[in-house]
Design goal:
With about 110 residues, the chain is mainly beta. It has a domain of about 60 residues: Rossmann fold (3-Layer(aba) Sandwich), CATH 3.40.50. A hairpin with a 2-residue loop joins strand 3 and strand 4. It is globular, with a radius of gyration of 18 Å. The N terminus and C terminus are likely disordered.
């Protein structure tokens, strides 16, 4: 129950903090990806909740695009698993734009 007394199914109180229940919308487990001898990910674990906001920041060649392409199902990891809820879908817009993906602008939102 919300501290005001109003019913709120998402409200949780722990140590005076305001928190809400969160469902996982993405889970990466023991992910491995390498290109030749260059290991990009080795045993990576990560989860994202439905209320989370995420930014990928890193140097060129650190694996940001590779991770996004794996999340979108465009590349396979060498090992590990990427899990999404049953009815979830992942959209991906390549860093070079729609033309780089061989698509026209009509389906830009359905990648």
């Amino acid at each position: 129950m919300h501290p005001s007394g109003a019913a709120d199914a998402g409200w949780l109180a722990a140590g005076g903090e305001r928190r809400y229940k969160s469902s996982l919308v993405l889970t990466v487990s023991n992910l491995r990806r390498a290109f030749g001898g260059q290991v990009i990910f080795d045993g990576a674990n990560w989860s994202v909740g439905d209320r989370d906001r995420v930014a990928l920041v890193g140097a060129n060649g650190s694996g940001k695009t590779t991770l996004l392409r794996m999340l979108a199902g465009l590349e396979d990891p060498d090992d590990g698993a990427i899990s999404l809820p049953r009815n979830a879908s992942v959209g991906y817009l390549p860093q070079d734009g729609i033309a780089a993906a061989g698509r026209d602008g009509d389906d830009a939102w359905h990648l």
